[in-house]
Amino acid sequence: MKRFIPYTVAGCFLGLLAGCGNEGGSSLANPTVNADTGEIGEPEVEDITLRLNWRFKGEFAPFYVAQEKGFFEEYGLNVDVLEGNGSTSVMQTVAQGQDDLGITSTVEPAQGVEEGMPITMIATYMNSSPIMIASHPDAPVETPTDLEGKSIAMAIASTFTNIFPRFLEEENVNASEVEAVQVEASARNGLFLGKEVDAVAIFSTNELPVFEKELGYELTSLYLSEYQFDLAGLTVIGNNQFLNDNPNTAARFLAAMDEAFRYTLEHIDEAVAISAERFPDAVDEEIVREQLTLLEEIAQFDSVPFGWIAEENIAETLTILEGSGLISDKQEAEAYFTNEFFQLD
């Protein structure tokens, strides 16, 4: 069983165990860590489930790399990585204790906490939002005001659709001059690929490589994060009872995933090969390679473990959601997340 190697950051062991304070966090139990060796205590449970919020796509590769390269095993865990059917469904199964951990965006758990669901965000692997507007180069949307006089397709009830009116307002775009076409996701893709609309709201780490390969040319990209609409994503949530009962297991999971993300982004070709072997019918190696390259661009964790949650990022997300009417009773950011299961040295 692998020992936990603490991180070296500015000479202070940040984390509850060493008493240097805790950034964020609800009142969950703390993992035990040997102050001399940095070893996390024995896992309370070894067999756990992780429910993804969709079927395989490139951003999920690190979870399978963790299995294939033995990172979970090194930390004494046997993690069953399960495909899912949307963030809302994942949040419900985790809240009900049917799954131990789940992958969602930050939007659903923020809403769930407000509704009293017993869940907490414990990591987020995209600390910059992948939400973007893609447009054809012959009708480019390079700035928000370029949307005026154009049409844009978006999925019904998606996060983008819900925050889009506020985005236009904040960027002083005349909404009456923007044709917003709300359709199902599959129809959205068809409208854009058929050039029946000028632009489309997508995720860079998912659809962008798919569309560019289909069309055979590079699309014009506008990231909402460049305009203070930066919603973190690829977030791990846990059931509060599970986290309270199994803090060492949670800490070991995050330590294993830190190694898995680091390894994946340093060995993208190997991660693609692992993914192709696991999902031979679903993986286009060229697309998955590009998805991982795009993931690397927005997964920036300097001097902290992969997944470390920045309180200001959560606060910004909550402000956007409140301004868009997606939450109505915003609490302090620390009510939604914790970094207690990460250890820094």
Automatic annotation (TrEMBL):
It comes from the Bacteria. InterPro entries: NMT1/THI5, SsuA/THI5. Pfam families: NMT1. Residues 59-271 form the SsuA/THI5-like domain. This is ABC transporter substrate-binding protein. It comes from Shouchella hunanensis. The lineage of its organism: Bacteria, Bacillati, Bacillota, Bacilli, Bacillales.
